[in-house]
Write a structure and sequence with these properties.
The structure is a single chain. By secondary structure, this protein is of the alpha/beta class. It has a domain of 193 residues: Rossmann fold (3-Layer(aba) Sandwich). The chain is built from 14 helices and 19 strands. α5 runs parallel beside α14 and α10 packs across α11. The longest helix is centred in the C-terminal third of the chain and has 26 residues.
Length: 566
């Protein structure tokens, strides 16, 4: 349950326009469970209050705890057909009976850490958290990172306590992840980006309904870290969703990150087909579920483990019809965004290496290079790989003692450089950009912050605010409210189109200080590499997605539908 125990109070109800409360005393109820992120803090509930709100599709009841936080859990905002699970979402069915969920349970289909298939196709829901008697409050729409094919809009992970206590309404949406969300055949069966389309619909629902909860529908700020940070930027770049968004906050995730766009989605689909074939040959009949459709969804999700399914360029009527690079360069994007990265965002990627994998890396340093570069030949690619290796490791081979350097190398190419590159293009396109780096902490002897670490200080479960947490909350709340992040004794100005040595950014670590020149010496060689080898500088790569789909799509469609029977 959501860090508190909620009890349904039966009695008189109210409508949002004329809200009344009904309190029920509860004695001795304590939650002391654990989850993947650590123990849930025990908390005694002295009072629970019910509040009823009429939404566009039906009434929902929220429940208030003694901290004055009202939670509305798992409200349907959309739906999709089990028979056509890759299509764009539709509106949810209306309901007349009051929806009164007391905790977050809804998850989209996924395989959990214990290898269990969990979730349901009835998962397009969102949860809303607010203070009692909220009126015209600013809204934060926070997207969970689904890049590992797991997760949900879980308030146990993104705890609303501190943001809500400062007058923010927090919205936590679910969306399809993994193959259900991002299988991309670029045709009618799987046009691509279903997960992004879910989020677009959730934003539209929020825009239409948040006023009934006391929210300001003209100030909806979206945020996300890692893969979700890239999704935030995609939603900003899309003409279909841009008008729904007032501001944005991202950490360690850019639409220009080499892992953020599938430039060959049909090849990804072929890999998925191969994994489905292997799983079909190894599944015992008695282990199948009763309904074949349910087995298909589970088989699909299991087969996708280890595959990164991500947004793609769709055909002309899709949500994303051109590459983010083209949009960044050609669109006027008048939005305020607070964006940056953890200084060791790729830490997990580095620490996954073993003696054996490092041995292979030392034989071919081109493995250090990101995937969105194109070379005329293998020798040229290897030469640039050796150049990058020399920049970070000198002339010695990479060893298990070099994890911090390896993390820095991957972080620069996968996170930091794409982030500042995208930020500069946003400024050029008319956006107001506040750029930062978060570096507080140490993990496994790697000094610095891993991807997503900064969120721990915004969505903390702790009652008391640490010094750094207060700074992070002040920055977020001030930016959400006014578009300018401020905190005590910090004068943080926005990024401007100036010389790289003069670019202003905020360093958030053991000290919080405004700096000039974002690692320009270290990142300069990435400028040089991308100027010459970036895949989108090669005209031959810029195939229209519809043409590419015509070449291979019909073959793959026949293959994948024969396995899935959708």
């Amino acid at each position: 349950m959501w860090a508190f125990i909620f009890f349904v109070a039966i009695g008189a109800t109210c409508i949002a326009a004329d809200v009344t409360d009904k309190s029920v005393g509860v004695a001795g109820n304590i939650s002391n469970e654990t989850n993947a992120t650590g123990p849930r803090r025990a908390e005694r509930i002295e009072e629970v209050t019910e509040i009823l709100v009429e939404t566009e599709y039906g009434p929902v009841r929220g429940f208030k705890n003694d901290n004055e936080i009202v939670g509305f859990f798992d409200i349907p905002y959309g739906s999709f057909s089990e028979g056509k699970p890759f299509e764009a979402p539709s509106a949810p069915k209306t309901w007349s009976t009051v929806l009164e969920n007391t905790e977050h349970k809804s998850k989209c289909p996924q395989i959990d850490s214990e290898n269990n298939y969990i979730g349901s196709v009835n998962c397009l829901t969102l949860s809303i958290f607010l203070q009692r008697n909220t009126k015209n409050a600013d809204v934060l729409f926070h997207i969970h990172d689904g890049s590992s094919n797991t997760g949900s809009g879980d308030p146990l992970e993104f705890h609303p306590r501190h943001l809500v206590s400062k007058g923010i309404i927090l919205v936590l949406p679910n969306y399809r992840i993994g193959p259900l969300g991002f299988l991309c055949l670029q045709n009618e069966t799987a046009p691509g980006n279903a997960g992004l389309k879910d989020l677009n619909l959730a934003l539209r629902w929020t825009k239409k309904n948040i006023g009934a909860f006391g929210g300001n529908d003209s100030n909806i700020v979206i945020s996300g870290s890692g893969g979700a940070g890239a999704l935030v930027e995609y939603l900003i770049l899309s003409n279909q969703s841009r008008s729904l968004i007032s501001k944005a906050i991202t950490e360690s995730g850019s639409a220009l990150s080499p892992w953020a766009l599938d430039r060959n989605p049909l090849e990804t689909a072929k890999n998925l087909i191969q994994k489905i074939e292997e799983s079909e040959n190894n599944v015992e009949s008695e282990n199948r579920l009763d309904t074949f459709d349910a087995v298909n969804v589970e088989t699909l999700m299991r087969a996708a483990r280890g595959l990164l399914l991500k947004p793609c360029i769709e055909n002309d009527t899709g949500l994303l019809t051109e590459s983010p690079w083209n949009t960044f360069n050609n669109e006027v994007l008048r939005i305020s965004i607070m964006t940056g990265s953890a200084n060791q965002a790729a830490m997990e990627m580095a620490l996954a290496h073993t003696e054996e994998s490092l041995s292979q890396l030392n034989k071919d340093f081109s493995q250090l290079l990101p995937s969105d570069l194109k070379f005329d030949n293998v020798e040229e690619k290897k030469r640039i790989g050796r150049q990058v290796k020399s920049e970070y490791f000198g002339e010695n081979n990479i060893t298990m003692n070099d994890m911090e350097k390896l993390s820095q190398c991957f972080t620069d190419s996968q996170y930091l450089y794409p982030a500042i590159r995208g930020a500069r293009l946003l400024v050029k396109g008319g956006a107001i950009v506040y750029f930062y780096e978060f570096s507080y902490g140490t993990h496994n002897d790697v000094k610095g912050s891993a991807k997503g670490d900064s969120l721990n200080y915004v969505f903390s479960k702790d009652e008391e605010e640490s010094t750094l947490q207060k700074v992070m909350l002040d920055l977020w709340v001030s930016f959400i409210s006014s578009g300018k992040p401020t905190a005590e004794r910090i004068e943080w100005n926005n990024l401007e189109a100036v010389e790289e040595t003069e670019e202003v950014w905020l360093s958030i670590g053991e000290t919080v200080v405004v700096e000039k020149g974002f690692h320009h010496t270290r990142l300069k060689h990435w400028d040089e590499i991308y100027d010459k080898y970036f895949v989108e500088h090669n005209v031959a790569i810029k195939l229209n997605s519809a043409v590419y789909a015509t070449i291979l799509g019909s073959i793959l469609l026949t293959d994948i539908t024969s396995f899935l029977n959708f």
